[in-house]
Amino acid sequence: MEKYYITTAIDYVNGAPHIGHAYEKILTDIIARHYTQRCDDVYFLTGTDEHGIKIQKTAAAQGITPKELCDMNAQKFKDAWKALDIDYKKFIRTTDEDHEKIVQKIFDKLLKQGDIYKHSYEGLYCQGCECFLNPKDLTEDGLCPDHLKKPEVVKEENYFFKLTKYKDILIKYIKEHPDFIVPQFRANEVLNQLEDIQDISVSRAKSNVQWGIDVLSDSEQSIYVWIDALSNYITALGFDTENPSDTFKKYWPADVHVIGKDILKFHSIYWPAFLMALDLPLPKHIFAHGWITIDESKMSKSLGNVISPTSVLESFNLEHPDAFRYYMASSAPCGRDGNYSDDDFKEKVNAHLANSMGNLLNRTLSMLVKYFDGEVKPEFKGENPLAKKALGTVQIVKNHFDNFEIAEASLEIISLVDAANKYVQDNAPWTLAKEEKMIECGQVLTNVLDIMCIISALIYPYCPNIAADMARQLSFNLKTKLDDLTADNIKTGKLISKEDIKPVFLRVDSEIADKSQKK
Ligand code: ME8
After folding, report:
1. Which of 72, 144, 435, 503 has its CA 20 to 30 A from that of 169?
2. 212 phi, psi to nearest 5 deg
3. From CA 468, how far away is CA 478, in angstroms rounded?
4. Closest C-alpha to ligand 1, atom 31
5. Is 230 a pocket residue for ligand 1 (Cβ < 6 Å)?
6. What confidence tens digit (pLDDT) does each residue in 296-313 have?
7. Residues 6+ apart with CB under 8 A from 346
8. Class of domain 4-298
9. Residues 6+ apart with CB under 8 A from 142
């Protein structure tokens, strides 16, 4: 694998980031970090979507300019991703000058080659979706099914993109590439939507929408938000209609666009059609994740249950975001909806990260210090009964990531931790020490520590801080590529002293955590 190009959806900046936005960025960051363990060149793009009527109206309601609103809220997204250790390479804003210029050129090219034409139109526009809705998709009360709001009747002369021209070729492509849309069960929904697809409006009259990129040849029209937004995946790399940059040539096509299920239509129908019109290759995968609910309810301003991504870190006084990242990433199987609840969060991270994984390392290192002054003797090394399961888990985890099964992969890692715990329980090194079977005791401890190195590598994408703490105590190089992992990781000689043993994760709400909170 030479390169891996991965993107998130770019978030609307008419509000602050919430836990749903965070879910997507965490999933993407985990996938990106996993691939850094398999390939030297991962490009991770995220950003904000800053044009459109929604942003224009929110700014007006707050008495500020759209640009001021965008600047203020884009910063909130950047701050949140920093707090969650989202390690993106580039943050694109659709108000970036170079992005705007290239979007104008893309539109112009499609217009000149006849993929875009002008047409007078009356339709039902949903501001929440920033798109025209088909009357047959509305609820019985005539509302947008996603936003439960009445769409407005818009009558305008707009530019249209000839989506119908690409209908058959798109259907064929999706049928011939069963891994294009992930999870596969969503492909049928897309094929159904394609059946009655129409040409789509790709501009709005400036008189109605001022906050948008001007059509180059027609200053009365601004470019429709989805052409503007979707193009970010190529403009960020320096795409140009005449002279694409080397970065673009290197990274395009994207390996995966990670997006929510609500915007799958735009990514698996509109975007591939735009790309075909531009004569560019299609992304390899569109991964549509599910939605996060709070205490089993849909998050909404009116219910007052919108949770900011950093509020969880603050309310549990977490010193790093690992537990939250782990919890979110393991909250739902591939493409299914997940849920956040405080109680479930506490229970799961305490059980998995503190009791199973953290304690195992802590107990094993403490015994090594107690019985052997922290030294791994050459005679402790030998055949490791946990090796097969551990190296098998590495392969299973890789396979899960290839299918974007992030929660499923995390379960495999915890199952390896459980197997190592059972091995310690079954072999009771404390009893071996009491019976003065010191070599056997040392072997058991070393076997576990060798496997803990593999566990630190596997948990790294989810919990980079915990993994770094584990690796430090094990003198293990976390930069080891997954394919280079062996079951022989611990060097012989002095490994650790008593004062260097440190719990890698304190139970949330435990006494110790309470004390460190008071500090
Ligand atoms: O759709 N759970 O922006 P957006 C999980 N600007 N994911 C959620 C979620 C939830 N409760 N709520 C939102 C847009 N998301 C466009 C995208 S891409 C070229 C343009 C996800 O701020 C949502 O599914 O409404 C989407 O993938 C992302 O957050 C941004 O949503």
Report:
1. 144
2. -165, 175
3. 7
4. 11
5. yes
6. 888 887 778 899 999 999
7. 316, 508, 509
8. alpha beta
9. 150
pLDDT digits (tens, 9 = 90+) for 207-257: 988 999 999 999 999 998 899 999 999 999 999 999 999 999 999 999 999
Amino acid at 170: L
283 lines ligand 1 (CB under 6 A): no
Q: Residue 517 has what pLDDT?
A: 47
CA–CA distances in Å: residue 470 to residues 31, 189, 355, 380:
21, 44, 15, 21
Write phi, then psi, for 217 (nearest 5 degrees). -95, 5
d(CA 31, CA 35) in angstroms, rounded, equals 6
Answer whether 453 contacts ligand 1 (Cβ < 6 A).
Answer: no
Mutate to test the pocket of ligand 1, among 21, 69, 76, 291 (most ligand atoms within 8 A of CB): 21
Q: Which amino acid is at 375?
A: E
**Ligand 1 center to 397 CA (angstroms):** 27
What homologous superfamily is domain 341-517 in, according to CATH? Isoleucyl-tRNA Synthetase; Domain 1 (1.10.730.10)
pTM of the model: 0.95
Tens digits of per-residue pLDDT, 312-326? 999 999 999 999 999
pLDDT recorded at residue 514: 52
Domain residue extents for the chain: 4-298, 341-517
Residue nearest to atom 29 of ligand 1 (CA): 21
The 8-class DSSP code of residue 222 comes to E
Find the angle CA(353)-CA(356)-CA(357) to the nearest 5 degrees. Answer: 60
* Cα 20 to ligand 1 centroid, rounded to whole Å: 7
